[in-house]
């Protein structure tokens, strides 16, 4: 949340050597339209807009890559349109919140009416991406979040309560979709719950990058790129053999 395609700079450079890329800015991010006030907005809305981009470009099926919020949108796509997903790479994935995360969200809701949203974002960024290890990721995300409108930020923030619901049913609805989860060993808020949840998914595999935090595609981009490209290539070969 708050990021855009700039956080994928080093990944796009590597991926473009092997694949055709469509980089999608979610609503309220980058130069995409904002979240319109008064209209219903949900994770399913965001997922269907991504699907609409594929349909517009006549792409019947794609391999997806997402980080943090992007993984939640991909999970939603896996539920509502699994046939659109050839495979998925998800970094810093979020499936459930631990008690501290829940406390953080509740505290943020209390102070948000009288707090500049960027202050709130900086606070959350420092908790999710703490210390020197995450300094590069933290600076990058905060600089991009500063470009968001307050209304767009809080429209997305309201959806935090639906994150667990977004993952519910994913292993069953997309059991034939290969999924690679990549997390940093220091992604302290989400990794334990993620590891437990994906044990129920026979199509899921998990890689942990040592000495790395939440935004693993930025902090350890070389390792992330190598794992992603190897996974995507192996699944493209499988699709070709099946055709």
Outline the structure in words.
Helix 3 links the parallel strand 1 and strand 2. The protein has a four-stranded parallel β-sheet, with helices on both faces. The model has no long low-confidence stretch (mean pLDDT about 85). The chain is an alpha/beta fold. The chain has one domain: Rossmann fold, CATH 3.40.50.1820. The longest helix is centred in the C-terminal third of the chain and has 22 residues. The radius of gyration is 17 Å and the shape is globular.
Features:
single chain, 243 residues, alpha/beta, Rossmann fold, four-stranded parallel β-sheet, 12 helices, globular
Query: At the first level of CATH, what is the class?
Result: Alpha Beta
Question: How can the largest sheet be summarized?
Answer: 4 strands, parallel
Structural class: alpha/beta
- Strand order, sheet with most strands: 1-2-3-4
Low-pLDDT sequence parts: none
Contiguous helical run count: 12
How many DSSP-defined strands?
A: 4
What's the number of structural domains?
A: 1
CATH superfamily annotation: Alpha/Beta hydrolase fold, catalytic domain
Cα-atom radius of gyration: 17 Å
The dominant shape is globular
Percent of sequence in beta strands: 5-15%
Q: How would you name the oligomeric state of the polypeptide chains in this document?
A: single chain
Estimate the helix proportion, in percent.
Answer: 40-55%
Assign the CATH topology. Answer: Rossmann fold
What letter string, H or E per element, gives the SSE order? Answer: HHEHEHHHHHHEHEHH
Distance linking N and C termini: 37 Å
CATH structural architecture: 3-Layer(aba) Sandwich
Mean pLDDT: 84
């Amino acid at each position: 949340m708050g990021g855009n395609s700039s956080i994928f700079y080093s990944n796009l450079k590597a991926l473009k050597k092997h694949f055709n890329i469509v980089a999608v800015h979610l609503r309220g991010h980058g130069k995409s339209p904002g979240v319109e006030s008064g209209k219903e907005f949900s994770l399913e809305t965001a997922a269907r807009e991504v699907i609409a981009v594929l349909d517009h470009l006549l792409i019947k099926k794609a391999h997806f890559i997402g980080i943090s919020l992007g993984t939640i949108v991909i999970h939603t796509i896996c539920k509502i349109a699994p046939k659109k997903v050839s495979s998925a790479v998800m970094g810093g994935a979020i499936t459930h919140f631990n008690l501290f995360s829940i406390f953080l969200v509740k505290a943020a809701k209390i102070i948000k009416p009288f707090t500049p949203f960027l202050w709130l974002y900086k606070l959350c960024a420092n908790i999710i991406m703490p210390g020197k290890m995450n300094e590069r990721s933290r600076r990058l995300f905060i600089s991009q979040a500063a470009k968001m409108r307050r209304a767009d930020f809080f429209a997305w923030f309201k959806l935090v309560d639906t994150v667990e619901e977004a993952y519910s049913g994913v292993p069953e609805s997309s059991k034939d979709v290969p999924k690679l989860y990549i997390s940093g060993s220091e992604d302290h808020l989400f990794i334990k719950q993620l590891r437990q949840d994906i044990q129920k998914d026979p199509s899921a595999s998990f890689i942990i990058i040592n000495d790395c935090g939440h935004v693993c595609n930025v902090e350890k981009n070389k390792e992330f790129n190598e794992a992603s490209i190897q996974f995507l290539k192996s699944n493209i070969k499988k699709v070709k053999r099946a055709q």
